[in-house]
Amino acid sequence: MNMYKKYEMALAEAKTYEEWYAAALILDHLDGLDKWREDNESGDYDYKLLASRVRLLRRMRRKKDLDRLIFRLREELHGNLGNMANPVLYQQARAGTKKLINSYIDEVCATLTLLCNSDVKALPPMRKRIFLKRAARSFGRSALLLSGGASLGLFHMGVIKELEEQGILPRIITGASAGSIVAGILATHTDEEMGALFERNDWSFDWVRLFRPNDLMKERSVLDQKVLKQCIHQNIPNMTFLEAYKHTDRILNISVSPADSHQFPRLLNYLTAPNVLIRRAALASAAIPGIFPPVQLRAKNYTGKSVAYMPQNRWIDGSVHEDIPKEKVNRLHNINHYIVSQTNPHVVPFLNEEMEETGLLPFIQDVIIKAPMVQIEHLLELVKQHFDFPGLGSVIKKAHAVASQTYSGDITIYPERNLMGLVKLFHNVGPEQLDSMMLEGRRATWPKIERIRNTTQISRTFDNCLRQMSEEYRYVKR
């Protein structure tokens, strides 16, 4: 076996990111891609602009010219300066992108840390805090969005585990359907508590039980919702959105769709529905139409008692209208960068890497795979406009909502096709299957790690600085 094949096999058989990254570095060296990373020049980004910014920031930082640094960062800090976030720049080498990009990001973060830690009369705490908050608001931040996918949604657990181990897990997490359950688990447990859960590895994900034929009409669903409810209760503590936020400092969002055609989809979180119980929100978001009945939300009242929330309304699967609710998340939490973990089996076959192949064969493949979905979307739009079938109007609206959504993000992590399949959707997941799905989630994340690290590093530094100042000067929590 030659050296190249040896490290290709090591890459394919890696059990940790460290093993994968070590093999990736060697393969990049054998391919000459380490030289590509060292060479600043490329037509895919403005390398001259970035190089000049690195020199300028480094010079001012060494002189501790704080006023000029603040001015420069407020005027020029941008997440995609010189097109440095171009996906093409992350699809050449396996182990990262141009080192100039890393140098620029490191220099910005070192500058922010210097400003945060400076104890000089010219930069009092209030001025620092105002600068950091305004600059962070202008820069924006990242969110992790977890899709639906029934049992396949446990793939998200591996994605979360890897991002958490690498220290790059966003504070803002959004979930729909199966993703709402996984997001609920994460948002109600601190880093230490999540680490203990992963260490014990004693998850319980028995959520499927078919009704007997004579019970189907009586219950108006195919699966027993009591089993799903029990599964959620075993994994998510009895917390409201606000209680979870105070406990973990994570911001949880769960999308739910209306069962009533006159209602609108909602994004539940500590701002829009602070007292709603996360367990109930996850149960509603996972209520797949035709499989489970619609759900009434519940909340804690001023005495802590569980009461009906919007008692006249019922809610269903959040994936129906907003599997990946980007616009609402952005409006509420200042998000401008989306990391999506996508496991919906009707979506994954249509996902490709950002840099797609060109030529006749890829064109034919795209026509065969993607054209039918486009036609279905247009057909449903026309049906919705021209017909009003009694009893079917709501179904058509929901079908159109499913077909017309956007299901990907700036960075999209999704499983290999061999993990997909309708047969795996509705079955209970045992320890061995969960381990396999988690490993698949981790493996799918590894090629995206360095890109996620780079695109989140500055916003994570802002968060760390603001948290440090809150602790030092006892400011009210953000």
Question: Can you describe this structure?
Answer:
By secondary structure, the protein is α/β, with parallel strands linked by helices. It has 20 helices and nine strands. It has helices at residues 3-13, 17-31, 33-38, 47-63, 66-76, 99-117, 125-139, 155-165, 178-187, 191-200, 213-219, 225-235, 241-248, 278-285, 319-322, 326-333, 360-386, 393-404, 431-445, 449-473; strands at 141-146, 172-176, 251-258, 266-268, 298-300, 306-308, 315-316, 335-341, 411-413. Strands 1, 2, 3, 4, 7, 8 and 9 form a seven-stranded mixed β-sheet that branches. A hairpin with a 5-residue loop joins strand 5 (298-300) and strand 6. Helix 1 (3-13) packs antiparallel against helix 2 (17-31) and helix 17 packs antiparallel against helix 18. It is globular, with a radius of gyration of 24 Å. The chain starts with a helix and ends in a 5-residue tail after the last helix. Mean pLDDT is 85; it is low at 354-358.
Radius of gyration (CA) equals 24 Å
Which structural class do you get from the secondary structure elements?
Answer: alpha/beta
Count of beta strands: 9
Helix content: 40-55%
Biggest sheet descriptor: 7 strands, mixed
The N- to C-terminal Cα distance equals 56 Å
**Uncertain residue ranges:** 354-358
Q: Can you tell me the overall shape?
A: globular
Number of helices: 20
Keywords:
about 475 residues, alpha/beta, two-stranded antiparallel ribbon
